Here is the input.
Amino acid sequence: MKGLLLTNYYLVYRSIFAYVGLALLIAGVLLFFAGPMISGVAAMLIILLMTLPSLEVIKIESKSGYDKYVLTLPVSRSNIVRSHYIFYLSVVIIGAFLSYIVIYTYDLIFETQINGIINIISSGIFVVLLAGALIYPFLYIFGADKSDAFVLGGGFVGLFVYYGIKFLVEDLIDKLPLSIDSSLLVPILFIVLGITVFTLSYLIAVIIYRKKEF
Here is the structure.
């Protein structure tokens, strides 16, 4: 597993650093010119851009023929799929920490007092986890040639589902006499839901990959 994860990293590590710089640049420009009102977009954009290189792994493996070569190694197909999912999740976590640092630093420097930083980060985590949960099974079924369309579609679906669930959850919280602070409950709910969907996607992807013929 360690070898598979390292291979995934070395396949796209240049892209990861490039996207880190791009994410910081775009987020900085947005925050500087638009202010705290755009902080949610900036945070989500950082996490989203950070995940793009990890989705390129399957495309690079396909073009180089590594996806066929790795099957000759003493690793199971489930481990191959797990390495893709763990690598994606790792990049999501790094992106979340990076977006938190950016928003928090901006808040300190300009004294904007941005509210709900955790809520902003959790929404970004949920969207990209849901997008990844949708993208990977389709990549295993249809191949890496259509990866750009799947990435774009997964992102839009993730945003649509997020805002739909957010509306329902906030409406439910307003109606129920809960003693728990909703500012903490909602972020936890979205993170747990995102991880649950991502885990279910992994189980489905393993079944698909085991039956896949190269």
Summary: The longest helix spans residues 77-110. Residues 1-211 form one domain. The chain has one domain: 1-211. Helices lie at 2-34, 39-64, 66-69, 77-110, 117-142, 147-175, 182-211.
